[in-house]
Specification:
Order of helices and strands: HHHHHHHHHHHHHHHHHHHH
Protein name: Flagellar motor switch protein FliG
Number of domains: 4
GO molecular function: cytoskeletal motor activity
Membrane topology: Peripheral membrane protein
CATH class of the largest domain: Mainly Alpha
CATH superfamily of the largest domain: Flagellar motor switch protein FliG, alpha-alpha superhelical domain
Shape: elongated
Keywords: Bacterial flagellum, Cell membrane, Cell projection, Chemotaxis, Cilium, Flagellar rotation, Flagellum, Membrane
Family: Belongs to the FliG family.
Distance between the termini: 87 Å
Largest sheet: none
Number of strands: 0
Radius of gyration: 33 Å
Helix content: 55-70%
Length: 352
């Protein structure tokens, strides 16, 4: 009679809904939705359910119209009779409440229940800001850092790379060229590992990191206090002290940090009396250079007028000098916060 195996593909599925299991009926509904071009978010199902559904669809052949109609009618009846459903377990509840409860509470519940956060872990990594990504790029292995940068948007990856020390940035850039052979499974494991590290990081109660907070405080401290604090930081943590120095912006930093074209904006923002006092108080080499820089980047008529007022101002008390110079710094910070002024990096010249 010959080999009848090829005819097995035409073997019918159960002839009526009553002969079908609930899983088979679910497979029929999914196949029907897909055949009509509807987007069924199957990837949100657990891996084992996706696999079982795939095998089930592969094992079924065909059903007649009356059977299909019966399955659909039964499905519609169940939907109409359904009042409300609740998610199963903590994982489902967290999915329903995503964005409705605080990230801190969600992370704690997920950790206590041993629940893996659903979805692509790389989506969570890509959504993070550079302040959270930079420590990972600095502490993880070169290979892991290269994979992470490869999964970021190009602009974000470039910005992150520019914040890393030169030798490490070059090694990571080279390692990126070696990531093409990584398997999907390994990529997923790396993403899960990085995402779990990030989930484990406590949410900061401050809107700025320690360097920015200390720098902001020292910006408006007296010069003596600032020097004393930085000296103490040098003794306890020289690296932190150096980063704080870079975050500090004082009156004498104006020539290096404020572009010449922005000086007129600053002058208009500062109280005229405070500006005259600040310029009159300049007596050291750095302060004098700052005064010359400010006067040299405004109209000649205004500069001459200010020089006359400075000469008439006479000697300035240290307390008044600090207040006036801090007033100029505050004006610059306000312009920066409003997006009307962009501070230079401090070690680069202004471009065009």
């Amino acid at each position: 009679m010959g080999d009848l195996a090829p005819l097995a593909q035409f073997a019918p599925s159960p002839a009526s809904p009553g002969q079908m299991t609930r899983k088979q009926k679910a497979a029929v509904i999914i196949r029907l939705l897909l055949s009509h071009g509807l987007d069924v978010p199957l990837k949100e199902l657990p891996d084992e359910v996706q696999a079982e559904l795939t095998l089930l669809l592969g094992s079924m052949r065909h059903i007649d119209r009356s059977t299909l109609s019966g399955v659909v009618d039964e499905f519609v009846e169940e939907l109409e009779a359904l009042g409300l459903t609740f998610p199963r377990g903590v994982a489902g509840a967290l999915s329903v409440l995503d964005g409705k409860i605080s990230p801190h509470t969600a992370a704690r519940l997920r950790k206590e229940a041993g629940v893996r956060q659903t979805g692509d872990p790389w989506d969570r990594v890509r959504a993070l800001d550079l302040k959270k990504l930079q420590p990972i790029a600095e502490s993880e292995s070169i290979e892991i850092a290269a994979v992470m940068l490869s999964k970021l948007d190009t602009g974000k990856a470039a910005e992150l790379l520019s914040k890393l020390p030169g030798p490490r940035a070059r090694r990571i850039a080279y390692a990126i060229s070696l990531t093409s052979g990584i398997s999907p499974e390994a990529l997923d494991r790396i993403g899960l590992s990085l995402a779990s590290q990030l989930d484990a990081q406590p949410d900061s109660v401050f809107d700025k990191d320690p360097v920015e907070r200390v720098g902001a405080i020292l910006n408006f401290s007296t010069a003596a206090t600032r020097d004393d604090v930085l000296e103490g930081l040098d003794e306890t943590d020289s690296d932190f002290a150096e980063r704080v120095r870079k975050a500090i912006f004082t009156f004498t930093n104006i020539p290096a940090r404020v572009a010449p074209r922005d000086i007129p904006k600053v002058v208009r923002q500062v109280d005229p009396g405070m500006l005259v006092t600040a310029l009159a108080a300049c007596n050291g080499a750095e302060e004098t250079a700052t005064a010359d820089y400010v006067l040299g980047n405004m109209s000649a008529r205004l500069a001459d007028s200010l020089r006359e007022e400075v000469n008439d101002r006479g000697k300035v008390k240290p307390k008044d000098a600090e207040e006036a110079m801090n007033s100029v710094v505050s004006a610059i910070r306000e312009l920066e916060a409003a997006g009307e002024l962009l501070l230079l990096a401090g070690d680069e010249d202004e471009e065009g």
